[in-house]
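Section 3.1: Structural characterization of target chains.
Under the original work plan, the team committed to producing a structural model for every single-chain target entering the pipeline before any wet-lab resources were allocated. The record below documents one such target. The sequence was received from the expression subgroup and is listed exactly as submitted; it comprises 86 residues.
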Amino acid sequence: MPGAHRAVAAALLPFVSALAADRGYAIVLASAMARGDRRAVSALVRRSVRSGDLRAVDGSPGYLALDFKPAGSKYAYRNLFFREGL
């Protein structure tokens, strides 16, 4: 599907904007990741990523992985966010 990567980027934009603009949101997300609270991490991410293409959220103390499967694409896309300083 042409533009699948654009659909994923558009879905990620509100999440990345929230991380950059809202320090409280970033702190709450980082603490949920540090506790290993997968349910809280997923809920916090899905609050900003409203796309139905988001298939899975995997967070741990050192990274956050978001898996997307855009409609019409045979490929899944994984976006990794790493926390520096660990």
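The two ends are 37 Å apart (CA to CA).
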